[in-house]
Every structure is written in structure tokens, then in C-alpha cells.
Design a protein that fits this description.
Length: 436
């Protein structure tokens, strides 16, 4: 009994229809998105590592050297020579060294800025991947809803033509309907069954795509949410301000600007300071060797300035400037592309709204006409061909309306996601309150 209850619960979970909100929440676990998020975390670690160059460095050094020969000094005077040992044969050194790059020609600060922009870019790219997954998920969900409604329309048509077929058989048996008319209805019955099978397969294909995007088996979908009024100009301005892939390009431009500063650092000198506590000895205790001073603590500075490097810094700086200019043109080109896409998507959205009104009117007309023909056929006032065509026309009208509704919502969601996910989610909250 316990196993039966578990099986029933599992079956109810599998057969549960998912809402669009549930599907989009499942996309959060998509492997592609997880991969992008891990890359973003890697960039965050690299940024933290780059910032370490702005801090002093404290190093503990310990070394041991074993000379094969005694270190001696040769003394030569006229008529005689002598040797004098200068230090121990076994040498141990230990030091605690603190160093700090006081000035690097802006190389350190530029490197940190570049790493920060790289982190921000990776975060924006992850957000843009999520936006595109949302686009794919909404499109697949709309297709699944349309296929489900198409299958429902074909089922209704199959029921209607099945009843008509039974009625036609009775009329044929009573000699009131020729065999040719009965065969035409039977052919329409088989055609409707084939359409129903195709609709169900399309529905399963859409569910399979949703399962791939959600990384979980999706066995059914609910209806589509309502759409809201859109303002083209507001959407365009928001997209140019918030669109994550455009912002990622701008971060790349900022990184290119930091790269120019980094390459220009070669024209400046670098200055570093250091201080150390150090001791020397002939044993591991560093207690001196009897020849030289054991305390080798010191402080100092290092100044380095490259006077000539074969014009390397000049050429690298020029190359970085060209990359910066290329990034500027890329941003301009991408902004123009966004404007073009939003304009086209908005026109498509308004066209689909008109098409939806036409399809709704067409469905009402088809329902009325099919009811009329059915009544006439039952009273032998119309033939089987007209009945079959009216039933098929009604199924087609229902399918067209479902397809237009799906395309309209997909176009609506696409326009909102042309801005960013947050904009889409905010408008979805409006939908939940029933404002449309």
C-alpha cells in the first residue's frame, strides 16, 4: 500500500502543469547559467588577487649555502704569499623583508581597474545569458501552450466529426445518405485523427525543449499570462541604459581604456621601498660566523627607468589605443542594432494585436457557421462535404487563434527582455495583479 501511495504521488508530480513563472525559476539551475556564474566568481577571485599588488609585501627568507672550498683572500707581497680565510665555509642567512611599490607609473592602479571591469563584464555576460535563456524558455512555453490548444481544438473537431459520422451511418443504413457522402465523412475523420496526432507530437516536442532548458522533466503547461501596454520610446531608452550585453561592451571599453594607461606606464620610472631584518651565521642559529657581522638588517629603495626599449612601449600603447577606438565603434554599432531590433519587435507586436482581434472574430464566425451547417446536416439540408469543411474550418480557426496568442505573448516578452530581466519581472508583477 505504501509503495502504491508513493507511486500515485510521483505520478501526480509528473503530470502537474507548470506555470511560466515556475518554468523561469527552474531556468536558474540551467547548467549553462551555472557555468557563466562560476566564470564570474573566477573573475572576482582574479580581481581580489590583482588588488593585492596595492599592498606591501612581507617575505620571510631563509637560505643555506655549503661551499666546496674555504673562502679565502690571497695576500701577495714581494718574496712571500699567504692566504686569509674571509668567511665560514657553511653560510646561513635569514631575513624578514618588507617591500612596497611606491610608484609604478600607474601600472598597478590600471591593472586593478582592468580586473574590476573584467569582473563586471563577466557578471553582465552571465546576466545576459540568463536573459537569453528566458527568451528561449518563454518562446518554448508559448509554443507548448499553442500546441496544447491546437490539440484541444483537434480533439473537439474529432468529437464533432465522430458524432456526425455516427449520424451519417444511421442515415446511410436507412437509405437517406449515399455511400460516397459517408466515405467523405470517414476520410475527414481519419484526417482529423492524423492532425490530432501531429498536434500531440508538437506538444511533446515543445515540452522536451522546456525540459532541457529547465533541467527537469516538464509534463504539462498552463495558460499564458496576460500582456500589458508597451511604450516603444520608453523601452528603447531603458534598453540603452540597462541592456546587460550593451553594458558588458561598455565595461570592455573601460577595460581597454585601463589597458592604454597600463601600456603608458612604461614611459614612467618605477620606485619601490624596502626594509629588512636579517642575520647571518655559520650554523642554523644565525649567530654569526666569526668573520663578518651577523646583523645584516637594512633599508633602501630601488628606482628603475627604462631609457630605450626599441620603441616597444610606444607600439604597445598605440595598439591599445586602436583597440579602445574599436570598442567605441562596436558600442555605437550595437546601440544602432538594439534600436533596429526594438523597432521591428514593436511593429510585430502591434501587428499581432490586430491579427488577434481578427482571429477572435473569425473564431466566432466559424463557431456560428459550423453550428448552422451541423443543424442543416441533421435535417438533411446540407451535404457531408460542407459539414466536414465547416468542422475543419472551426478547428483551424481555434488553432490560428491559439497560435496568434502564443506569438503575441512571445513578442511581448521579447520586447521587455530587450531591456533586461528586471523590467520583464516588474511587468509580470503587474500581470499578476490583473492589470492589462
Amino acid at each position: 500500500m505504501r509503495h502504491l501511495v508513493i507511486l500515485m504521488l510521483f505520478s501526480s508530480i509528473l503530470l502537474k502543469a507548470e506555470s511560466l513563472d515556475e518554468i523561469l525559476s527552474l531556468i536558474e539551475a540551467n547548467p549553462q547559467l551555472k557555468m557563466a556564474q562560476e566564470l564570474s566568481r573566477s573573475a572576482a577571485a582574479q580581481y581580489a588577487a590583482q588588488k593585492s599588488a596595492n599592498y606591501p609585501s612581507l617575505d620571510l627568507l631563509y637560505s643555506a649555502t655549503y661551499l666546496f672550498e674555504r673562502p679565502v683572500l690571497y695576500l701577495k707581497v714581494p718574496g712571500a704569499s699567504a692566504t686569509l680565510q674571509m668567511q665560514s665555509q657553511n653560510q646561513y642567512d635569514g631575513s624578514l623583508r618588507l617591500s612596497y611599490a611606491l610608484f609604478s607609473g600607474f601600472a598597478i592602479s590600471s591593472g586593478i581597474d582592468a580586473a574590476r571591469f573584467s569582473l563586471q563584464r563577466s557578471q553582465l555576460e552571465a546576466e545576459d545569458l540568463k536573459r537569453n535563456l528566458y527568451l528561449g524558455g518563454i518562446s518554448a512555453y508559448a509554443s507548448a501552450v499553442a500546441a496544447k490548444q491546437f490539440a484541444a481544438a483537434q480533439e473537439e473537431a474529432l468529437k464533432a466529426i465522430g458524432k456526425s459520422y455516427e449520424k451519417a451511418k444511421e442515415m446511410h443504413e436507412q437509405g437517406m445518405l449515399p455511400a460516397s457522402a459517408l466515405y467523405r465523412i470517414e476520410a475527414s475523420l481519419h484526417e482529423t485523427k492524423a492532425e490530432l496526432s501531429r498536434a500531440k507530437n508538437n506538444y511533446l516536442s515543445a515540452l522536451n525543449l522546456l525540459s532541457y532548458l529547465a533541467s527537469r522533466t516538464i509534463s504539462g503547461v498552463n495558460t499564458l499570462p496576460k500582456h500589458h501596454h508597451l511604450n516603444e520610446e520608453e523601452l528603447l531608452n531603458s534598453a540603452l541604459e540597462k541592456r546587460p550585453d550593451l553594458l558588458a561592451l561598455k565595461k570592455m571599453h573601460s577595460a581597454r581604456k585601463s589597458l592604454v594607461e597600463l601600456k603608458k606606464s612604461g614611459f614612467y620610472p618605477s620606485l619601490s621601498l624596502y626594509g629588512q631584518l636579517a642575520q647571518h651565521g655559520d650554523d642554523p642559529m644565525l649567530d654569526g660566523d666569526g668573520y663578518t657581522n651577523k646583523d645584516r638588517s637594512a633599508a633602501g629603495f630601488s628606482l628603475n627607468y627604462n631609457l630605450f626599449g626599441g620603441f616597444k612601449d610606444t607600439h604597445e600603447t598605440e595598439a591599445a589605443r586602436k583597440e579602445l577606438l574599436s570598442a567605441q565603434w562596436r558600442i555605437a554599432s550595437y546601440e544602432a542594432l538594439i534600436k533596429k531590433e526594438i523597432k521591428e519587435d514593436y511593429l510585430s507586436f502591434t501587428s499581432l494585436k490586430s491579427e488577434l482581434r481578427a482571429d477572435s472574430s473569425g473564431l466566432k464566425a466559424s463557431e456560428a457557421y459550423c453550428a448552422l451547417v451541423q443543424s442543416e446536416f441533421d435535417n438533411q439540408l446540407s451535404d457531408a462535404d460542407l459539414l466536414s469543411r465547416s468542422i475543419a474550418s472551426l478547428a483551424g480557426a481555434r488553432s490560428r487563434l491559439a497560435a496568434t496568442q502564443a506569438r503575441l505573448y512571445a513578442a511581448y516578452a521579447k520586447i521587455l527582455l530587450q531591456v533586461d530581466i528586471q523590467t520583464f519581472q516588474e511587468v509580470s508583477q503587474l500581470n499578476k495583479r490583473g492589470i492589462h
